[in-house]
């Protein structure tokens, strides 16, 4: 079925809306699944933060994790990337610096700015925090077909970017 045909077929004859009650229920089911997934993710983040350093808050661990994934960054770029308040990010960076997990150096492109980077200790603690959860996604997907995994990735990307997914062959 072509995209235009499926769009027309999805219109509720009584309301003229796409999908009607069935669509609403499907969206509510998706919201519920996301709530469950977010709860699991929050627990994992809290456990990882505690492993990295006892008493570390999950938000501080997230800053550590982002630096580990993306490399050195300025406070402003971290704040933008994480879509978080600059003051909150600054406090997290200060905590990480006090623990010896990050260091700040002068930005070679702008001497008024500082670049924040993981230290070897920070990289070591980040890896230790990630290790207990490293295989969780692989384990959860062990019985999935590769095409289903790829399709799930495509759908999640489309959802995150606010675009319609490409038609599945």
Q: Mind sketching the topology for me?
A:
Blueprint: H1 3-9, H2 20-52, H3 58-70, E1 73-74, H4 75-82, H5 86-98, E2 102-107, E3 110-118, H6 120-130, H7 136-140, H8 146-161
Antiparallel strand pairs: 1-3, 2-3
Written account of the structure:
With about 170 residues, the protein is mainly alpha-helical. Helices cover about 65% and strands about 10% of the residues. It has helices at about 5-10, 20-50, 60-70, 75-80, 85-100, 120-130, 135-140, 145-160; strands at about 75, 100-105, 110-120. The protein has a 3-stranded antiparallel sheet. A hairpin with a 2-residue loop joins strand 2 (about 100-105) and strand 3. Helix 2 crosses helix 6 (about 120-130). The longest helix is centred in the first third of the chain and has 33 residues, at about 20-50. The radius of gyration is 21 Å and the shape is elongated. It starts with a helix and ends in an 8-residue tail after the last helix. Mean pLDDT is about 90; it is low at about 1-10.
């Amino acid at each position: 079925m072509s995209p235009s045909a499926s769009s027309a077929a999805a219109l509720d004859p009584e309301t003229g809306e796409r999908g009607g009650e069935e669509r609403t229920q499907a969206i509510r089911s998706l919201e519920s699944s996301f709530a469950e997934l977010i709860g699991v993710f929050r627990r994992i983040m809290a456990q990882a933060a505690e492993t990295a350093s006892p008493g570390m808050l999950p938000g501080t661990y997230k800053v550590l994790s982002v630096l580990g994934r993306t490399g050195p960054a300025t406070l402003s770029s971290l704040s933008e990337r994480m879509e978080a308040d600059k003051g909150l990010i600054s406090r997290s960076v200060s905590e990480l610096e006090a623990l010896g997990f990050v260091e700040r150096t002068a930005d070679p492109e702008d001497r008024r700015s500082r670049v924040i980077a993981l230290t070897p200790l920070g990289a070591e603690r980040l890896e230790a925090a990630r290790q207990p959860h490293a295989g969780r996604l692989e384990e959860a997907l062990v019985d999935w077909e590769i095409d289903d995994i790829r399709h799930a990735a495509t759908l999640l990307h489309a959802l995150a970017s606010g675009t319609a997914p490409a038609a599945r062959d």
